[in-house]
Amino acid sequence: MWVEIICGLVFYRLFRRFFYGSDDVLEFETSDFDAIFSVANRLEKLYGGKVYVGLHIPDVNTGSRQNIDIVLVTKREAAVISVQNLAGFISINEDGSWTCEGGSSQSAVCNPDPVSEAKNQASVLESYIEQRGVAIPEGYFSYKVVIPNPKFRTFYNNFPSEVITYDQWVQLKPEPRSMLSGWIKNAFRGGKKEMQESFHQQLNFILSTAPMWDRFVTKCANDFAFNFIRIGS
Question: How large is the C-alpha radius of gyration of the chain?
Answer without folding.
Answer: 18
